[in-house]
Amino acid sequence: MKKVLLSLLMVAGLGFAASAQTEGAVQKITIGAEIGLPTEKGSSDLGLLVAGGSLQYEHPVAKDLNLTGSAGYLSSFSTKKDVEVNGGLIPVKVGAKYYFGGNFYGAAELGAGFGTNEGAGTAFIYAPTLGASFSVSPKNNLDFGVRYEGYSQKGVSSGIVGLRVAFGFGL
């Protein structure tokens, strides 16, 4: 929990540092790196982490509102040598991102996660996010988002708390 609060404070600080340059809803593509911690009991004992990358498209539909579509790859692994974890997920999501206060946003996405292991199947995904986006040039921006990503498959639920750091290209 302390790590999540620290991440939120970092995002807020970066947003305030760039408050002179407001973002708002613009058409763009972002490419990002992601890291997360599973929320299940016992996962910290195993040293589990989730890491990967994603591509997200944003299309403005109102002054402060973008529709989003994203896809990526997430892989589970353990930081402990004696624990072997092999698992990959290809999340495909759609949603909306609302910019409030210029640089800050709240987002919500829904989608499907396709397991890469044999017999892994497909999970329903939901992902609320809080973040900040600020310009580094007239058409490019940096985006920092903290999210909870929940997974549900065959009556079993799990999730991660994650951080996405991305570079955006305005279109």
Describe this protein's structure.
Residues 1-20 form the signal peptide. This is Outer membrane protein beta-barrel domain-containing protein. The protein has 171 residues and is mainly beta. It has a single domain (2-170), classed as Porin (Beta Barrel), CATH 2.40.160.20. The chain is 9% helix and 64% strand. The chain is built from 1 helix and 8 strands; from the N terminus they run αββββββββ.
Brief overview, please?
With 171 residues, the chain is mainly beta.
Question: What are the salient characteristics of this protein?
Answer:
171 residues, 64% strand, mainly beta, 9% helix, 1 helix
Using the coordinates shown, work out and report the CATH topology: Porin
How much beta, percentage-wise? over 45%
Low-confidence stretches: 1-9, 14-22
* CATH C-level name: Mainly Beta
Q: Roughly how many Å is the radius of gyration?
A: 16 Å
The biggest beta sheet, please?
A: 8 strands, antiparallel, barrel
Secondary-structure-based class equals mainly beta
Any guess at the CATH architecture?
Beta Barrel
Order of helix and strand elements from N to C terminus: HEEEEEEEE
Q: How many domain regions?
A: 1
Number of helices: 1
Strand segment tally: 8
